Amino acid sequence: MPDERIPGKLIGAIVAVGSLAFIGILTETVMTVLFPQLMREFNVDTATVQWITTIYLLVVAATMPLSSYLNRRFKHRTLFLAAVALAVLGSLIMIVGHAFPVILIARVIQGMGSGVATPLMINIILEQSPKSKVGRLMGVGSLVITVAPAIGPTVGGAVSSILPWRAIFVIVIPIILLVSLPVGLKCVEQHRPTEEARLNSLQFVSIVLALCGLVMFLNQAGVAVSAAVSGVSAAVSAVFAVVSLIVGLGALLFFGWSSKRSFSPLIRLGWLRDPMVLLHLIAYMLLPIVGIGFGYVITNVAQLSLGTSAFLSGALVLPGALIGAFFAPVGGMLYDRFGPVRPILGAFFAAICGPILLLVFSMRLTPVTLAGFYFIFGFGYSLGFSNIMTNALRNIAPQFMPDGNAVFNTCLQFGGAAGTALFSTILSVAQAGAGEEGGAAFRHATAVGGSWTFATMIGIVAIAICCLIAAFRIGAKRNSRL
Q: How far apart are CA 87 and CA 113, in angstroms?
């Protein structure tokens, strides 16, 4: 049918906005591979250099809740131009900055750009896609979310082996200005009227405090546990973790309480009363813990247990990332054709086989088997992940879709941050007291930590699958009453 064709301008808009989000997420994961160089250049320790990614994640997570307000208040093209300006400005500062605080400021600006671009892309897809094509276009959009963090270590390892690390940002500026900007100016359109929405500053401050507190709790709790196992004083980190948790939970509770009583809340949360949608949200937050955390685990197990180079360890992630690039839209097409149950559950029953095999062979892994078993997980994960959000948002009223988009994307960012913190802590605990890096005992300890990590991954994916099964049962009961 002619009205069910995907408009060319919609494809261009997705490419333009999605490329901004892709570049933002890619540079975030690229930086983790460059930590050794950055530590030497800026004369900082490991705990300090990690703020390059931590502060970026905090800013992205804090900007996401604004997306509902921004989508209602401003035109898509205005938001697109703001994201372009922030991305270019942040990259320019990264190129010329020669002091660590300046680099952190650049990461804050880049985080704001990504925090605007990613939900904008999803809102454009949800608002402008033909109904029969929503699944496949959400699959295309999910490439940004799933592929960029997966190939980041590969890109970082390749660039750092032949060029200065600042070359990454020299490369991305022409892509933004010569590809994203002109395509976006031509293709980004407005299909719904803006509203006179008001920004509830108190709620915004509370959600920022909640997200920052919870992310800092995860970060400092990991530091405290690692220090305690290593026999180093963990008092300061433990106190910081507890205070961060109290602040984060308190601010989150206040945000929920205030949203119920506000005439114009920052994010409307009434749709979360639907248990089917809530179960989808829980699964959508749990799965990135594994999906995004896998990049950290594979590169560290490969280097510290199997003795590979930084470049090879990053390359091991690439096959799983490439399969994700191909199968995310395929998963959306299956959703459009068969509905949610079989495409989603089938995908994650396949995905869980990856960490199961990694656990079984954890003490005798090779680079080939490590990449191969991750490939299995990447296949299933990319096939089903975007369909979870698609199905959830289809079950809420259209006027609440920007709010649902904001919450789902915020939970995605939080899940990714939680995964890195959780798995780095598990590996650190296993490595404690195992001698110097590179020794046989240290390699064995890392392999043991890898087995603990893979077991944790299996548990997380299993819980997510159970949440999805429960959600589908609720949906089936509702349909049977109709």
A: 5
Give yes or no for a contact between 49 and 38, defined as CB atoms under 8 angstroms apart: yes
The two tokens of residue 445 are: 């300890």
- The answer to whether 259 touches 203, Cβ cutoff 8 Å, is yes
- Nearest residue to 237 via CA among 101, 421, 92: 421
Q: d(Cα 252, Cα 292) in Å, to the nearest integer?
A: 24
- Within 8 A by CB and 6+ apart from 100, the residues are 42, 44, 48
Looking at residue 41, its pLDDT comes to 84
pTM of the model: 0.79
User: Is the CA virtual torsion 300, 306, 311, 317 positive or negative?
Assistant: negative
The tokens for 227 are 């220090």
Cα(379)–Cα(76) distance, integer angstroms:
33
Give the integer Cα–Cα distance in Å for 42 and 108: 18
| Residue type for position 195 | E
Place of tokens 């299995």: 376
For CA atoms 274, 276, 280, 286, give the dihedral sign. positive
pLDDT tens readout for residues 304-324: 888 887 678 777 877 877 776
pLDDT under 50: residue ranges of the chain: 1-2
